[in-house]
Specification:
187 residues, mainly beta, Phosphatidylethanolamine-binding Protein, six-stranded mixed sheet, five-stranded antiparallel sheet, 1 helix
């Protein structure tokens, strides 16, 4: 795929693709020395700013548009995990996406909830036990939502429907780049 862009029909719209556990250890030792910094952005919200209702379970519950840059050479797979560490029951996982090719540069709004996509990318289970994205739904107060992008020097080798913990375990010792975008949501 030379252009690096896929278009998926997602029921009512289109999504463009430019393309539970502890944090995995980076390649080359502890502390992430030498790990590439991936910049993660969204046209829907600024870093640290509120996520619009449209992207929550109180709204349309569609994925926000995300883009990233700075994926290092040697990347074999890109992984995206979104979670809320402020949930009263512990960290709540909102999205697990893995198997993305190294040329992916982002995911469009309203991304489909398919287990496996045309390019071989896969989605895992969120904390609701569903495949794909589940938007913010805090019971009260303001919560933080971290969209983390990882570059791995080896494929995770996982099947569709994996959990965050399974993905992070597969990433151990293979992370060569990482970035995050944090947004907030208040009920």
């Amino acid at each position: 795929m030379k252009s690096g862009v896929l278009v998926f029909a997602a029921g009512m719209g289109l999504a463009l693709v430019g393309c539970g556990g502890k944090e995995p250890a980076p390649v080359g030792g502890k502390g992430g020395q030498g790990m590439a910094k991936i910049e993660v952005t969204s046209t829907a919200f600024e870093p640290g700013a509120p996520i619009p209702k449209r992207y929550s379970r109180y709204g349309a519950d569609v994925t926000p548009p995300l883009a990233w840059s700075g994926v290092p050479e040697g990347t074999k797979e890109i992984v995206l995990i979104c979670d809320d560490p402020d949930a009263p029951v512990g960290t709540w996982v909102h999205w697990v996406f893995y198997g993305m090719p190294p040329g992916c540069t982002g995911l469009g709004e309203g991304f489909p909830r398919d287990k496996v996509l045309e390019d071989g990318s896969m989605q895992g289970k969120n904390s609701w036990g569903e495949i794909g994205y589940g938007g913010p739904q805090p019971p009260s107060g303001t919560h933080r939502y971290f969209f983390r992008v990882y570059a791995a020097d080896a494929p995770t080798g996982l099947k569709p429907g994996a959990t965050k913990g399974e993905v992070l375990k597969a990433l151990e010792g293979h992370v060569i780049g990482k970035g995050e975008l944090m947004g907030t949501y208040a009920k």
